[in-house]
Specification:
The structure is a homodimer of 377-residue chains. With 377 residues, chain A is an alpha/beta fold. Chain A contains 14 helices and 16 strands. Chain A folds into 2 domains: 7-266, TIM Barrel; 273-368, no CATH class. Chain A is 40% helix and 20% strand. In chain A, the strands form 4 sheets. An 8-stranded parallel beta sheet of chain A has the order 4-14-13-12-11-10-6-5. Chain A has a 3-stranded antiparallel beta sheet with strand order 1-2-3. Chain A has a 3-stranded antiparallel beta sheet with strand order 7-8-9. The interface between A and B is large, with 37 and 37 residues.
Chain lengths: 377, 377
């Protein structure tokens, strides 16, 4: 195996670790900002780094369509192309083919589809997905899978999961091992305990550098998600990183960490940043709300991000209401900063065996909610 | 008078000077980035400063409608509101009422109009425009005028100019003098020599802290603009700053400077930055063009802006083609950086009495055009 992963602290099921890749070390538990089309939207790479992020995610589906994997390879890989020298994880493309492409045809070999950009025909198979991710120079490559839709009958979930396991095996065969680079398998099985356990067995039998939990955050809700997490995370190999895909809200990250998850990714902090939604220690704040229009206070007086230093809620409100790019820039920065602060807090709490206290205080602050509106002058 | 302006060097008609305001010193000739709605679009204030800009422009029309002048005053003025501690010039609102508002009615008193945002009724007069600019805490306030449409008959241009001169007098009366704050008058008269000279006479009779040349860059073309500049700039008081409004392309700035203009503003570098147009030493570059898609070279290898350091033309092309916010951010930054470098070069050339050489070299580089496309691999 070609990615080093070592655990430094354990607190209950939660763990602190280090994942060493060709482009740098990732301290876990880690949140990975999503850099869909070779950019974390509305952020300079150095600003992404300044939030504390150590790894970003790239989307195979978007990049294979535009500018194309071979083009990025000519530019020396995704790191050089987008100016992000740190570690990169790429997804397999499977999830976004299903959510974005048109005229999809799925069979044992893979998925044929038309681009949502220009209608051109493409095909993704386990082999081509791995090859594209190699062209992109991903430090962490994801096995090609089908993200089973939700809700779904158990028989269909089983068929889908079994095909994903065959695809996982083909992905493993197609992946060329190299120092500092690794391949993760993806557990499927929807909300069915037996299928999840079978999927874990199949993947560990093949053997991967890390194990992702897929097919969650697809509408099943927080409770159902944590139930599946309880079942799945506890049976995954202890000495390999565990990655909960596409999750989530701050509370979901905390729920994942206390169940032993090491890595997360989600578009929520960046996408919300472009629609005026801010995540803070005191819960979610909709800065578009009229209550903020005359408020001279920062979004969060304890936050050290640029949005909270030098700008008022009233100004952020004005920017977002006016559709100004700077509003998207500042709120995206704030959200990513908050997510990284949260992960940092979780890591520190685990390392001193005080995760319970941290989680309790986190829940209290989130429940208490935003500071009171100011009296209007 | 309450703004200090001193000249340090003269080269032909061109001059280097210092304009001292309540919020800092502006080295002239100066280019002022436009911060329409209390933000230089797609730029953090500290990034605007990093380009070398010493003053930004705010738009009275936009700000009075959203968030409102009184709201900005509650926030301590436009400097505090938008996080720009340096000097600010605000326009009078007259120009944008004519170009953006609906159902305009203009008479001797002022202009009644409906907001282009929500259809609400508003009125601007010389007195209310000056009062709004005072609420915004503008270091430099512009007299309220009518920007005469182009082309126009001489009789109509004369009526319009004469009304603007009466409005200039009312603006002067309404303006409260304060140390470090000043009021500029605006020369009108379209393309008619006699009217321009009469307008200059009327304004100097009233007496202002600076003199703007308005009603240009409205479609008359470079040649006609320089003809009017030749007529107008030479008869303006030597010891006051001269401001050519809404201008322009790099070549227009150079044309203005050699005719004795001290200040410029234009949306071109910021607006073009959002549509993939870059201004460089080697002329204009449309980064959307397919010739850049595989080009690993920076936009300008000698430029020190972030867009030219760490990113390729191919990546910028990808961002712009993909509609990514980062594309707008990087190209806006580059364009503003280039404009400030150009002004810096002009100031240095004037200070050593080598403006002729600078202009010749500028014209050669601009005419030579962009570097050759690379051979495709």
């Amino acid at each position: 195996m070609t990615l080093r992963f070592s655990l430094s602290s354990i607190d209950g099921a939660a763990r602190c670790g280090k994942l060493e890749t060709a482009h740098g070390v990732i301290n876990t538990p880690a949140f990975m900002p999503v850099g869909t089309a070779a950019t974390v939207k509305a952020m300079l790479p150095e600003s992404v780094k300044a939030t504390g992020a150590e790894i970003v995610l790239g989307n195979t589906y978007h990049l294979m369509l535009r500018p194309g994997a071979k083009r990025i390879e000519e530019f020396g890989g995704l790191h050089d192309f987008m100016g992000w020298p740190g570690p990169i994880l790429t997804d397999s493309g499977g999830y976004q083919v299903m959510s974005l492409a048109t005229l999809r045809k799925i069979d044992e070999d893979g998925v044929r589809f038309r681009s949502h950009i220009d209608g051109s025909y493409h095909k993704l198979t386990p082999e081509s997905s791995i090859e594209i991710q190699r062209s992109l120079d991903a430090d962490i490559t994801m096995a090609f899978d089908e993200c089973t839709p939700y809700p779904v009958a158990e028989t269909i979930a089983e068929e889908s999961m079994l095909m994903s396991m065959r695809w996982a095996e083909r992905s493993k065969k197609a992946f060329k091992q190299k120092k500092g680079y690794g391949l993760f398998g993806i557990v499927q099985g929807s909300t069915f305990e037996k299928l999840r356990l079978n999927s874990v067995d199949a993947l560990t039998e093949i053997g991967f550098d890390g194990y992702a939990i897929g097919g969650l955050a697809v509408g099943e809700g927080h409770q159902e998600m944590t139930r599946i997490l309880d079942i799945t995370a506890s049976v995954l190999p202890e000495n390999k990183p565990r990655y909960l895909m596409g999750v989530g809200k701050p509370i979901d990250l905390v729920a994942g960490v206390i169940r032993g998850v090491d890595m997360f990714d989600c578009v929520l902090p960046t996408r919300s940043g472009r629609t005026g939604q801010a995540f803070t220690r005191n819960g979610q704040v909709n800065i578009r709300n009229a209550r903020h229009s005359a408020d001279p206070r920062p979004l969060d007086e304890l936050c050290e991000c640029p949005a909270c230093n030098g700008f008022s809620r009233g100004y952020l409100h004005h920017l977002v209401r006016s559709g100004e790019i700077l509003g998207a820039m500042l709120l995206t920065w704030h959200n990513l900063h908050y997510y990284q602060e949260l992960m940092n807090g979780l890591r520190q709490a685990i390392s001193i065996n005080k995760l319970d206290n941290f989680v309790q205080s986190f829940m209290e602050m989130q429940t208490k909610g935003d500071i009171k509106a100011i009296e209007r002058l």
